[in-house]
Amino acid sequence: MKLHKCLFGTVFFCLLSSAGAEKLAEITILASRDRPAMLRSPVQHVGAAELAESKVLTINEALRKLPGVLARDEEGLGLRPNIGIRGLNPTRSSKVLLLEDGLPLSFAPYGDNASYFHPALERFERIELLKNAGQIAFGPQTIGGIINYISAPTPDRAQGRVAARGGNLGLRALDLELGDRVDGLGTGWRLDATHKHSRGSRRNIELDAGDVGVKIEQELSESQSLTLRLSGYRERSQVPYSGLTLAEYREDPRGNPFVNDFFDIDRQAVALVHGLQANDSVTLRTAVYHTRLQRDWWRQSSNSRQRPNDATDPACGDMRNLLSGCGNEGRVRSYRTLGIEPRLQIDGVNWRALVGLRHHREWQERLQLHGDTPRARSAGIGINGGVREDNLRRVEANSGFIETTLSYQSTSVTAGLRYEDIRYAREDRLRGTSGTTALNVLIPGIAVSQQLTNEIVMFAGVHKGFAPPRVEDAIANNGTAVELDSEYSWNTELGLRWQIDAESQLELTFFDMDFANQVIPASLAGGGNATLTNGGRTQHRGVELLGEWRSRDFVESFANLRPRVRLAANWLRDAEFGRSRLATASDGSVVPVSGNRLPYAARHLLTMTVGGEWANGLSVQIEGHYVSAMYADDLNTVALSSDGQRGRLAGHAIWNLALNYRASEQLEWFAGAKNVADRLYIADLSRGIVPGPSRQLQAGFEYRY
């Protein structure tokens, strides 16, 4: 199979890239649309056409096109995504597993599964979302869902693309794509480069990020191939960590008093994939991956209750600290991951077996440096200066899974089992203390699919959900193990998928996530530095709907128009605490919260897109996105608190508009607007009040050859 016909790393891990490699088979990783009876659970996706027609600017816009996904805005350009699935807390995307071509994208998926960066969306051809039992083929997060970004394939011939866009709020972006294939050598290559700049969603913000990706595919023989993927990301932004207090928000809802907060990040990643087709039925894929990430966030305040950074000095105990000589904080983080993952697939007449192993290691170097001036970049020597944290945190994880699919006529059953063995270590270099702990878990799952008709498939599944604790939550600074349980749940799914035609489908899914223990931030803990607690039993139940319709019948009958409609909806009927759950109120009292709504669990999510394309190359698309009201804390506080971290976030709806004109086969012009009505709404309270992005106008072109 030629690579340009493959979805590398997702629906299939295609193992060879050049013409003449027709004999090399595929490893099925998620699901095959060509074999609907083999589906464990349908893979929901946003494809290249949808992304292009919408002229998506941020990853948040793209993910909202998938049902059950809450993608919360933070700084206005989607550089730090906050993704929650089926009512799970979206803060720092810590409850979702992010993959790139099937390999870990997060810089510490076992020890600190938080996202402080996101690669350029333009590098990816497709986004896929896998839920329920199919998740056990991955890990360690197997609860709400897995998001897999699929890098674009190398071309069959020389080709390129350049795209540029600009707009208000200082928006300017440039995308470059180059690729070719050297048939004589069996080599294909591709280069993607993106740069974006914006003034973001609040004042005193400058966002500047660049991303480069290189993919090289080499045919070794008719049965072997190598794929090398390199990527680099660099960001230099003036951007705050904290939101606003209630008084500040009322005075200036898009204000930002933290004028000396700066964020720097550098990430390099490499992955090498070897594919071997032993015979017609046995395929082996082995991936080796390594990432390095350096993240420095220098700021005057780490959250809305820590104003300014060090109130131990009375002279610096108020907002004067921001512009005085009282200093700042540097949260300096260095991450490294290394792993190897072989996967073996064996295909029989009416069965398929998939076996995988993984050895994974993580290192976290964590420093907290207090400088002497607001723009310091090193530890100071004054009363507020010095090194406040110097931690080394390590994780070694060994895992494996086996998954077998049996098919008989129109029915298939997939059963699987995953094993995770995780070992933590933490060293506090300031105190001279250290400690270790470990956990292991078995994660079973089973799914059934039934081909009711040629167009309709019924699917059902149940699996154990698992998410490990962070290193810092498993081992205290003094080296003692903390009794913080892992997250466990039993997840059930039942649905129908109707493939109306090649481009139109409808999917309805009922889901239930029953947590034996959900680990959540304490009500007064805030955001990224939250103290995590055992939340006990919680329940998530709801219904999801995904529909897409495209018609060719209108082309001749109605003004040469080809209309399209896409709908992604979620009704989260239940998302609440179970019995005997207690929380601490602002006055220090302990109150029951049993039956309360979980934080950031919106009852309704809806994204609907209506558009059409005329025969002359003009297309129009209107998109509406709605998020219902939700609470920011387990106490279900209604009124916004003075520190801006508790209260009820009102529901909101925004509208986006995209206009595209294809002047020729090579050239396309586009214009559009995000949040057309300039709706002001509160997007987040986890670190103070953060408004959603304001109206963003954009225009640009795309040229291909």
Describe this structure in words.
The protein is mainly beta and 705 residues long. It has a single domain (3-704), classed as TonB-dependent receptor, beta-barrel domain (Maltoporin, Chain A, Beta Barrel), CATH 2.40.170. It is 4% helix and 53% strand. The strands form 8 sheets. It has a 22-stranded antiparallel β-barrel. Strands 3-8-9-6-7 form a 5-stranded mixed beta sheet. Strands 1-2 form a two-stranded antiparallel ribbon. A hairpin with a 4-residue loop joins β20 (411-428) and β21. The longest helix has 7 residues, at 48-54.
Task: State the gist of this model.
The protein is mostly beta strands and 705 residues long. The strands form 8 sheets. The protein has a 22-stranded antiparallel barrel.
Topology:
Elements: E1 12-14, E2 26-28, E3 44-46, H1 48-54, H2 59-63, E4 69-72, E5 82-85, E6 97-100, E7 103-104, E8 124-130, E9 146-151, E10 159-167, E11 172-182, E12 187-198, E13 207-221, E14 224-238, H3 246-251, E15 262-277, E16 282-299, E17 328-347, E18 351-371, E19 386-408, E20 411-428, E21 433-451, E22 456-467, H4 471-474, E23 487-501, E24 504-517, E25 519-521, E26 532-534, E27 538-550, H5 554-557, E28 561-577, E29 582-584, E30 590-592, E31 604-614, E32 618-627, E33 630-631, E34 648-649, E35 652-662, E36 667-674, E37 682-684, E38 690-691, E39 696-704
Parallel strand pairs: 6-9
Antiparallel strand pairs: 1-2, 3-8, 4-5, 6-7, 8-9, 10-11, 10-39, 11-12, 12-13, 13-14, 14-15, 15-16, 16-17, 17-18, 18-19, 19-20, 20-21, 21-22, 22-23, 23-24, 24-27, 25-26, 27-28, 28-31, 29-30, 31-32, 32-35, 33-34, 35-36, 36-39, 37-38
